[in-house]
Design goal:
The chain has 80 residues and is an alpha+beta fold. It has helices at 9-20, 25-34, 40-50, 58-63, and strands spanning 22-24, 53-55, 72-75.
Length: 80
């Protein structure tokens, strides 16, 4: 796990989201736990409000291979 020490935790989370592209809420919480960032889930919510990520509907979630009941998101930050 290589992180840029000069990036804020929010920027590190955004970089991880951009790299993985599709992610579930439990994966964000797991990332936050491994990187000592307790606000990871709240930051995910802030990113959704600001339009950096979007929530997938149930059909698209299944199409992308997610079988969990958590919400699944897609990184769209660079598409704006």
């Amino acid at each position: 796990m290589t992180n840029d020490l000069f990036l804020s935790k929010k920027d590190q989370l955004a970089k991880w989201m951009k790299g993985i592209h599709y992610f579930a809420t439990h994966e964000v919480i797991e990332w936050g736990t491994k990187n000592f960032y307790n606000r990871a889930a709240q930051t995910k919510g802030d990113m959704r409000i600001s339009g950096l990520i979007r929530k997938l509907d149930d059909d698209e979630k299944i199409f992308r291979g997610f079988k969990c009941k958590d919400e699944v998101y897609e990184w769209i930050g660079d598409n704006k």
